[in-house]
Write a structure and sequence with these properties.
Elements (H helix, E strand, L loop, with lengths): L1 H16 L4 H13 L13 H25 L8 H4 L3 H74 L18 H4 L5 H4 L7 E2 L3 E3 L5 E3 L3 E7 L4 E5 L4 E4 L2 E11 L5 E2 L6 E8 L5 E10 L4 H8 L8 E2 L4 E2 L11 E7 L7 E8 L3 E3 L1 H10 L16 E3 L1
């Protein structure tokens, strides 16, 4: 009985210590249970003589257990011996019953041990199966994540290498001047050009600049709120001449505040008058606007503003571009670019020194439509700036 209990305890310890390897632990325990009883006998006691000695030692232990009872009984005479021999059959029967009871207990304990081992094996197999399933799920999830990452990277690379053909731009936010070159590949000059506009006009070389020849006449016009400014298209036949080159007036539009600065100072608004030569060269005249008296030409434009963006209005009246010019015609001049996408360079700029006035109400009306529609000043990049004496 004690051997079986000790064997069960050892099995439980072995099963706990081998939780990470349930198959090996179960095999080892099954082997130990299936051993014959003779396997528990020490190796040096398997010879016949040794076995006899073990049996004799066991008998001696039994005799020792019964010795106290024998010593306590008074010596009997030979005549009385037949009378005390009578209890021997009853003792033998009790010993046999006790032996049967021990055998039954050992059989029951063996059954419980086997049942417990089966439970342990089943539990360990269940844990191993659950761990295998969890590993399989984790591997599948990791594989899906890797595939998604690869697909996302491929999309990003494709998008980065795809030609940019955007047309939307603004003066603020993600579509603002700092990102114009990223919106459209054709607008690269907005970031890489070295002759960009506007600039801060300072340290100009004072020379006797030729007067700009104006050949402006009252003309029909149309106007549009194009989402960036109020732009006025004029009829044909209005020219300027400068540097032996003639340019025809195409349109004029407005910015708030002025894009150009003179010695670091700007004005509340500016009007840009855009001209083009027969060869396609661009020349722009900038007329600075400050608060003061009402401006007649501006009032005509404001009176005919379209109600919707990108709606073109063509009034049945005329306006005279000469009304846009200041009395004094001294100016700064330099080579620059368009101040909006695509920022094309090779543009001749002429900025009048004397501003024109517009009323506070006229300026407030434009500010409601476009509170900010001016590109920041750009680097002069060592360009020559000339100004009239």
């Amino acid at each position: 009985m004690r051997n079986l209990i000790a064997l069960f305890a050892c099995c439980c310890v072995a099963m706990s210590a081998s939780a990470n390897d349930p198959a090996a632990a179960a095999a080892k325990l099954a082997a130990s249970i299936s051993k014959p009883a003779s396997a528990s006998v020490p190796p040096n006691a398997k010879s016949p003589d040794a076995l006899k000695k073990l049996v004799a030692a066991a008998d001696a232990k039994v005799d020792t257990a019964h010795a106290p009872a024998a010593a306590a009984t008074p010596a009997v005479t030979a005549a009385a011996k037949p009378a005390v021999a009578a209890p021997a059959p009853a003792a033998a029967a009790a010993h046999a019953a006790s032996s049967d009871k021990d055998d039954d207990a050992e059989v029951a304990l063996s059954a419980k041990i086997a049942e417990r081992l089966a439970e342990l094996r089943e539990r360990q197999q269940s844990r191993a199966s659950a761990a295998a399933r969890a590993k399989k799920v984790a591997d599948a999830r990791r594989k899906q994540e890797e595939q998604a990452a690869v697909a996302a990277a491929a999309v990003a690379i494709t998008a980065a290498n795809a030609p940019k053909r955007g047309t939307a731009w603004s003066y603020e936010g993600e579509l603002g001047p700092a990102n114009w070159s990223k919106i459209n590949d054709g607008w690269a000059k907005c970031a890489t050009g070295n002759r960009q506009s506007p600039i801060d006009l300072r340290d100009g070389i004072k020379v006797n600049l030729e007067q700009i020849g104006f050949d402006y006449h009252p003309t029909s016009f149309s106007e549009v709120n194009n989402g960036h400014t109020i732009q006025v298209e004029v009829g044909s036949g209005n020219f300027i001449t400068v540097g032996n080159q003639t340019y025809e007036l195409q349109q004029f539009h407005f910015h708030r505040p002025s894009e150009e600065k003179i010695n670091g100072k700007g004005t509340e608004m500016v009007m840009h008058m855009v001209h083009k030569s027969a060869e396609g060269k661009i020349a722009i005249i900038a007329v600075l606007l400050e608060r003061g008296q009402p401006h007649g030409l501006i009032q005509t434009v404001w009176d005919n503003l379209p109600l919707e963006k990108n709606e073109v209005v063509a009034p049945a009246i005329v306006l005279d571009p000469m009304d846009a010019l200041p009395e004094k015609r001294e100016y700064f001049t330099y080579m620059g670019s368009l101040s909006e996408p695509p920022c094309s360079e090779g543009v001749l700029w002429m900025v009048f020194k004397q501003p024109r006035q517009a009323s506070p109400a006229q300026m407030a009306l434009f500010s409601r439509l476009y509170p900010l529609n001016a590109r920041p000043v750009q680097s002069t990049g060592g360009r020559m700036i000339k100004e009239s004496n």
